[in-house]
């Protein structure tokens, strides 16, 4: 009698298993492409606040080790009504490895010939070999609005989701799976944010970005 009940009990347990959060384990190991871009952005902001050209060059070098391309297959839905009198935000945070970052490095180098040589040498360097790739999507979010991005992730593959705002207002980040389970949250902040995880199975995930600030925020959403 007991043996006959076992298959029935196993089938009854399947829905519960299917509703388990889509999370295998926290991501570990070396930082991936999205994490390195977030780290480069944080390092760049700190270098500019302190006026340290060497730290800025290190951030540029880190960012230039990542190849960026537009995200394909990500869908965006915006909720909430944008206030008509919301002040415009700053331009999107510049690419920490781009020309704007090099221009800031030249300004910090000033008339110091040694620093100028270092800036010139880094600017002349070309990446060698195949570079890790990061997927990037850009958007603007008005005060009080929320963006919901739907994107696919692969099972048992470490994933990273980075958020870089324009720096003049806070953004909050959350990541949920297809069951609605919350896998990662980052409180509202003007600093770049990162979520790292390893899904248990293939699935679609929702990245929620909320703007509780007072001005429009231009941001970049980054995946590995």
Mind explaining what this structure looks like?
The chain is an alpha+beta fold and 224 residues long. It has helices at 2-18, 33-50, 53-63, 99-109, 113-124; strands at residues 67-70, 75-79, 133-141, 146-153, 159-164, 171-176, 182-189, 193-197, 203-210, 217-223. A hairpin with a 5-residue loop joins strand 6 (171-176) and strand 7. The longest helix has 18 residues, at 33-50. The N and C termini lie far apart (52 Å). Residues 85-94 have a biased composition (Pro residues). Residues 74-99 are annotated as: Disordered.
Average residue-wise pLDDT: 85
Strand portion: 25-35%
Class derived from helix and strand content: alpha+beta
- Bin the helical content: 25-40%
Q: What's the end-to-end separation, in Å?
A: 52 Å
Q: What is the tally of helical segments?
A: 5
Order of helices and strands: HHHEEHHEEEEEEEE
Keywords: Signal
Keywords for this entry:
224 residues, 5-stranded mixed sheet, 5 helices, 5-stranded antiparallel sheet, disordered N terminus, alpha+beta
Q: Could you outline the blueprint of secondary structure elements for this entry?
A:
Blueprint: H1 2-18, H2 33-50, H3 53-63, E1 67-70, E2 75-79, H4 99-109, H5 113-124, E3 133-141, E4 146-153, E5 159-164, E6 171-176, E7 182-189, E8 193-197, E9 203-210, E10 217-223
Parallel strand pairs: 1-3
Antiparallel strand pairs: 2-4, 3-10, 4-9, 5-8, 5-10, 6-7, 6-9
Helix pairs in contact: 2-3, 3-4, 3-5, 4-5
């Amino acid at each position: 009698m007991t043996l006959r009940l076992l298959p029935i009990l196993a089938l009854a347990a399947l829905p519960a298993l299917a509703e388990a959060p889509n999370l295998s384990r926290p991501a570990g190991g070396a930082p991936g492409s999205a994490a390195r871009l977030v780290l480069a952005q944080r390092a760049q902001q700190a270098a500019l606040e302190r006026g340290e050209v060497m730290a800025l060059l290190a951030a540029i070098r880190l960012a230039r080790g990542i190849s960026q391309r537009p995200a394909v297959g990500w869908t965006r839905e915006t909720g909430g009504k944008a206030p008509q009198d919301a002040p415009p935000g700053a331009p999107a945070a510049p690419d920490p490895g781009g020309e704007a970052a090099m221009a800031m490095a030249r300004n910090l180098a000033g008339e110091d010939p040694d620093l100028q040589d270092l800036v010139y040498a880094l600017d002349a360097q070309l990446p060698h070999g195949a570079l890790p790739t990061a997927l990037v999507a850009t958007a603007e979010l008005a005060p009080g609005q929320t963006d919901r991005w739907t994107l696919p992730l692969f099972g048992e593959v470490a994933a990273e989701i980075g958020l870089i705002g324009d720096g003049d207002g806070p953004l909050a980040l959350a990541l949920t799976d297809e069951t609605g389970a919350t896998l990662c949250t980052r409180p509202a902040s003007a600093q770049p944010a990162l979520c790292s995880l390893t899904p248990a199975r293939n699935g679609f995930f929702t990245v929620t970005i909320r703007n509780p600030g007072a001005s429009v925020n231009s941001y970049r959403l980054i995946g590995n």
